[in-house]
Specification:
about 100 residues; mainly alpha; two-stranded antiparallel sheet; about 50% helix; extended
Length: about 100
């Protein structure tokens, strides 16, 4: 089954997010290894978009909730935080 948003095919969760946002996800999340100058330019662009559309965050939350509700299979739940390791007493240490 293929899913389209407008005339664009959405294959992954990232595709849905980008099509819903109308901007690349990296604009909002950044990319690994970006320089301070790249981050500043990205944040300036994001601020401009938010200034032009003050309802954008509310719209985004609504759209994201709708996409998740309609396509739960696209979102494999992966913990964002690894569970803490259980510490074990070292050999010879007092318990």
């Amino acid at each position: 089954m293929r899913t389209y948003i407008g005339r664009q095919q959405a294959i992954s969760a990232a595709d849905f997010a980008e099509l819903a946002l109308g901007t690349p996800v990296e604009l909002w999340l950044g990319v690994e290894g970006e320089t301070d100058e790249e981050r500043a330019a990205r944040e300036d662009a994001a601020r401009d978009i938010l200034a032009d559309n003050p309802h954008f965050p509310d719209d985004l939350v609504r759209i994201a909730a709708q996409v998740i509700e309609e396509n739960p299979d696209l979102f494999d739940v992966v913990p964002l935080v690894r569970p803490a390791r259980r510490r074990t007493a070292r050999k010879g240490a007092a318990a």
